[in-house]
Amino acid sequence: GRLMYKLPEEMGLIAIAVRQTQGKGRGGNVWLSPVGCALSTLHMTIPLYSNLGQRIPFIQHLVSLAVVEAVRSIPGYEGIELRVKWPNDIYYSDLMKLGGVLVNSTLIETTFHILIGFGFNVNNSNPTICINDLIRKYNKEEGTQLKPLTADCLIARTVTVLERLIDIFQEKGPNGVLHHYYKYWVHSGKQVRLRGEEGPLAWIVGIDDCGFLQVHEEGKGIESVHPDGNSFDMLRNLIVPK
């Protein structure tokens, strides 16, 4: 918190951790980042009276998308199965988590000061899987010779892509970016249970104008749901209507 007021006014301050032990995850989880994990914190400002300032929850989606596009926009790497998982994870297909995003925002007068933390496994196969594992797997299956990527290169690409996505969002709103987001997200045509293990089944439709998940329950209309930490557990496919 104290860091916030000393920072420059524009985007451009980035901190990169080689090894971090004090990381914060959602709900107070500790995020450990060993070597081989690209981990950084980025500071930016967003005017309150702008498309994104009115829809701050979208920032985490844009950052997740930027990480995925950082890899999949490289010529030859388009087929690497890196995907976004709503609201803030980066996945290998829909199988395994590779990274995540955490956004902290503070409103000072009419400007949001945003601290974005993002981390993803680039080169360490433990404890889960890493981007370079996916590249090796792809090379083996497709007979290609794609080179492994470095954390530095991917952090730089992520920031560049994020700046572009934010510009598009500020100009066109959610519709400017959602088709990209849906192209890479893991939820297309998936079902989830509402309100608990025994709850009714609903289909995931998309995300609404505020960045919340939209689901369609049989016989009912489309409703928006949101993560609330405890009752929200995408891994068990549980969500709670707001």
TrEMBL record:
SUPFAM superfamilies: Class II aaRS and biotin synthetases. PROSITE patterns: BPL_LPL_CATALYTIC. The keyword Cell cycle does not apply. One of its GO terms (molecular function) is biotin--[biotin carboxyl-carrier protein] ligase activity. Keywords: Ligase. Pfam families: BPL_C, BPL_LplA_LipB. Belongs to the biotin--protein ligase family. This is Biotin--protein ligase. It comes from Tinamus guttatus (White-throated tinamou). The lineage of its organism: Eukaryota, Metazoa, Chordata, Craniata, Vertebrata.
